[in-house]
Amino acid sequence: MTDNRRTAHRKNAFTFGALRVGGRAEAIECLIWDVSDRGAKIEVEAPDGVPDRFTLTTNAEAPPREATVTWREGRRFGVTFAA
């Protein structure tokens, strides 16, 4: 299990999102388990295609955010958002 080293409180999101990588037209769908101002825990169906950096869209109201993977555990990832 991953140690909790978060510095910001995360709230349960349990919603769908999308990862956009570079100039790819297609997004990678994901499940967002929780999210804070600084990062999120996400899950994807096929983790092999997920790079270390991508743009994460969490919902229609929130702007897309640049994200960097900080840990990987199977299909789940912890990401931090760029400042």
SSE topology:
Layout: E1 11-20, E2 28-35, E3 39-44, E4 53-57, E5 65-73, E6 76-81
Antiparallel strand pairs: 1-2, 1-4, 2-3, 3-6, 4-5, 5-6
Write a compact overview of the structure shown.
This protein has 83 residues and is mainly β. It has strands spanning 11-20, 28-35, 39-44, 53-57, 65-73, 76-81.
Mind explaining what this structure looks like?
This is PilZ domain-containing protein. A 6-stranded antiparallel β-barrel has the order 1-2-3-6-5-4. The protein has a single domain (11-81), classed as predicted glycosyltransferase like domains (Thrombin, subunit H). It has strands spanning 11-20, 28-35, 39-44, 53-57, 65-73, 76-81. With 83 residues, the protein is mainly β. It contains no helices and 6 strands.
